[in-house]
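Why do we care about 3D structure at all? Because function follows from shape, and shape follows, mostly, from sequence. That is the central idea of this module. The next example makes it concrete: a single protein chain, its amino acid sequence, and then its structure expressed as tokens.
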Amino acid sequence: MNTDETRVHRPEATPGPEEPLTRPPRAAVHAASGHRLGAAHPRQEGPADLRLVPPALAAWATAALVPGVPTGWAVGVVTGALLLAGALLLGPARRRPHAPPAAALLLCVAASATSAALHGADLRRGPVPELARRYATVTAEVEVTADPRLTRARVRGNRAMPPTVLIEADVRRVSEAGGTATTTRAPVLVLVDVGEDESEGEGESEGEGEGESEDDRARAQAAPSRWLNLLPTTRLRVTARLSPPRRDGDRIAAVLRVRAGRQPPEPSAEPSTAQRLAGRLRAGLREATEDLPADARALLPGLVVGDTSRVTPELEEAFKETDLTHTLAVSGANFTIVLALLLGPPGLAQRSERRGLAPRLGLRLRTTALLGGLLALAFVVVCRPDPSVLRAAACGSVALLALATGRRRSLLPALATAVLLLVLYDPWLARSYGFLLSVLATGALLALAPRWSTALRRRRVPPRLAEALAAAGAAQALCAPVVVVLSQRVSLVGVPCNLLVEFAVAPATVLGFAALATAPVAMPLARSLAWCGGWPAEWTASIARTGAALPGAGLDWPGSWTGAALLALATVGVLLAGRRLLRHPWWCGVCALLLVLVVVQPPPLARVIKGWPPPGWRMVMCDVGQGDALVLAAGEGTAVVVDAGPDPALIDHCLRSLGISRVPLVLLTHFHADHVAGLPGVLRGRSVGAIETTALEEPEDQAEFVRRQAAAGQIPLRHAAAGEQRRSGPLSWQVVWPPPSPPTVTAPGTEGGPNDASVTLLVRTADLRLLLLGDLEPPAQRELARSPAAAELTGVDVLKVAHHGSAHQDFALLRRIAPRLALISCGEDNTYGHPAPATVAALRAQGATVLRTDRDGAVAVAGTGRELRVAEG
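And the structure:
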């Protein structure tokens, strides 16, 4: 009988004397040390090694707590930790198995406390903290430590506050006026007010403004760019007012507010050679992307080096709504994508086989590691060596280890080591939400994603799709509780949006880095590469915009740590339920369909479920905070918008909830920011026929803002005139104020001017009469009562109360109007006391029902003149 035999041959340790030494083929170089070509999977490994996790977490917690405690407490923590560690290592318990790990944990706590205490002491050392407590005006030489960034313009009351340039810097020399300069080193935040200089004694001279030359305006517009173009390591000489940081525990010793006006910065020393080179590379990438479409021009530099200077607030908001903000920040993913060219695609992270450039070029592992280190160094220099970039490089190095070894068992210890080293190097990272999110996302990819991917493949999900689903789902599950603390919102489209952009981010990043590298030597080639990279960048932007535009894209959630804990519990419940549902494909399909319906919210279904908007609605007062925004129905999906509120996102959300896609007219009653700053939200993705405003174009900056928005959208802009009558579908309106020359007299303590020039409308729809008073003050209200249109103001059905229900009202006019329903638009807990109790009482005394957005939310008016119905959103 023949039997099969399996013979095992022992390999020769060295070649025999008769055997020549031969050089292995290039592809076989990486097969050494376990990198076996053709091996489908790595060898089986034991459970993950978690011994470094407790010391890393203990050091992290210590670094987060120590900077806020007195020095004596910090010394006590260090001393106690060292004594306990010594007792464990040298005492009778040293032979017990738990002693070395516990001693290691205590030593890490001592080291972290020491580092955090020293960093905290830096904030209290030197003359800067004392000068800040006295709000002294100083002359300081500062060294820029990070890229300057521009804040958004914000609305405060009825004014639009100009943007501010934020610069992180170190004070190197400081002196008070007439004093001796002192050498020091203190981290500070420089706030540069780049608008008109409003400091005392430096106001505009008489007649300046209207007679301002074009050169003056050009210098004013160029002032922010001069500050924003400063490179790290540049030294500046500034005159500024010091103030303490807003919160205890900040990583700065003081705030320097610079009243820059139109003056450029005054560098006292040039940036370092490395930063000049990085600046040229970044500028070359911006130049290479100059001719791309707007979204690609904004996104490509952000995807590559984190340069988000061109990203509009509206696009940034879309990325936040879809949980894609991480693509705009420099993260470990950027580093991993570049290193994947060297070692192979991320899809092979679980395999021993490699397909990158290194094995194809015959590079040995040590040479490959050296090249990876050089790439990491270049990455840090080009993307700036601030803490966020260092964090990205460290977390990216963990992903590099995954690509290089294919071993899951060594990855969690590597991540713990990275966390430990980073918090020892920079303890302030322990308080950074960005650092927390990076670690959670990386840990999810290392610990959860491989198991989830395996489980999905067992259920016949294609391997590539299983890996993508597992990675996006794991990162979302661990990061969502932290994100909700920051945004007070849970994204329901985050996972699908991340899946859809995953295939675009890698090519956009690679082509962007290629454009970055070639721009200094071959700009035409760089433009071509940027053009190719612009396609996936535009795809990413379109996914973000589409996802954010869905009615159910997000769910409001309590933005506290209690809310985060509740979301974590809810996530665990969903995962447990999902694990059971995977066994029943039909139920999975039903749940997926329900989720799609919740996110898309078809208008008929949304009306049935939410009751909003109510059927037959005629007018909606949107809840836009401390501001005004009204929507007048003019047909299916069509409405006239009166005022836009202070925030584009709020008015856009209101219009989307009403299903408005066509706006024949946007009427802005006057140019105060709480009425016009939200205009971009009205124009977002909608067909707009015209914009109509009051003739008094004050304040000038907001009037110019409206002109720019109209010009950008190629929308006709005209002035409203008293007596004008117009119609759109079932809606008609008449302008009853202001006259060609509005009154200039104002009551004491009132705004007057722009308020008294508010466009006032008398609207008719479905036998309803609505009076919209804008922000009229008592003088203009009295003039309105004596105007030719006064006879038509008696007994209106709905009144939009003037000026958010302030105390400045002409009560005789309110008695004459005698509305059935009075609507007041104001912000919750506003500092102006709106609405005034006397105004509310006067309206109720006339028999009016009073509704206010700060308590009732959005208000919809429906019905007819005989049957008036009201619904609250």
